[in-house]
Design goal:
This protein is mostly helical. It has one domain. The protein has ten helices and two strands; from the N terminus they run αββααααααααα. It has helices at about 1-15, 40-55, 55-75, 80-100, 110-130, 135-155, 160-175, 190-205, 210-220, 220-240; strands at about 20-25, 35. It has a two-stranded antiparallel sheet. It is globular and about 50 Å long. It starts with a helix and ends with a helix.
Length: about 240
């Protein structure tokens, strides 16, 4: 929680000096210019927790590198094809490390293409939420909290449970800087993309059946519905503006 708040505070104070700025347009939910990249504290919390919990190296290295690439994307535009390609490669690396660490049988490796698309897609879904005050942080608290609850009830490996709790607490520490009517800072890609990667990775790591997978995915359903509604209104607004 401390790291999540500290990262947001640092970017509020010095983010503009590093070019980490989000300028509002007609589709934005905020006004003026707001610093972004406040998710660096969430990244720090993730790396610290992964190191202490001795999670598989490929899991936290791939997620961490994708987050750092996203931090660069908070300053300069990265071509969507390049960004998506790197995210898919990172997802594949994460999955190999996760499956090897869990000692899963070879048949599950055949599902890597599907799970790689799922992880990259979830990362970009989280990224889409970051433009609305409080939504990405609240989703992190609720989503990771439910994952931790699921892990506790199912007797899953404790590192997954503790990591989920840590991610939820890091989001909670970030929220006070992002909940105001005019947010003081946004997570930026460095935080939102990371949350999507880690959440999807935990979903895969905790799923030992189709039922497990569907239940864990359902924890985000209310937020999916909200974002689809928001997207629909934005498309409608754009169509009116363009005649």
């Amino acid at each position: 929680m401390f790291l999540g708040g500290a990262g947001a505070w640092l970017v509020v104070r010095w983010g503009s000096g590093f070019g980490l700025l989000d300028k509002a347009n007609h589709r934005s939910s905020h006004r003026g210019v707001v610093p972004k990249g406040g998710g660096i504290g969430i990244l720090a919390a993730f790396l610290l927790a992964s190191w202490v919990l001795r999670l598989p190296v490929l899991f936290w290295v791939c997620a961490g590198l994708i987050s750092l690439l996203s931090l660069y994307g908070d300053r300069r535009e990265i071509l969507p094809k390049v960004r998506l390609g790197i995210q898919l490669l990172g997802s594949i690396g994460l999955l190999f490390g996760l499956f090897y660490w869990e000692g899963r049988g070879w048949p599950v490796y055949l599902l890597i293409p599907f799970f790689a698309v799922f992880i990259a897609g979830t990362a970009n879904y989280y990224n889409f939420m970051d433009g609305v005050n409080g939504i990405a942080g609240i989703t992190g608290v609720v989503g990771f909290g439910l994952v931790a609850w699921f892990a506790a009830l199912s007797g899953s490996p404790s590192p997954f449970l503790i990591l989920a709790v840590c991610m939820g607490l890091a989001c909670m520490g970030f929220l006070p800087f992002n909940m105001q009517k005019n947010a003081r800072v946004f997570m930026g890609d460095v935080g939102s993309v990371l949350l999507g990667f880690v959440y999807a990775g935990l979903v895969v790591g905790l799923s030992y059946s189709l039922n497990d997978f569907m239940v864990l995915c359902a924890f985000l359903f209310p937020f999916y519905a909200d974002e689809l509604t928001t997207l629909g209104f934005r498309i409608w607004d754009d169509s009116l503006r363009n005649g």
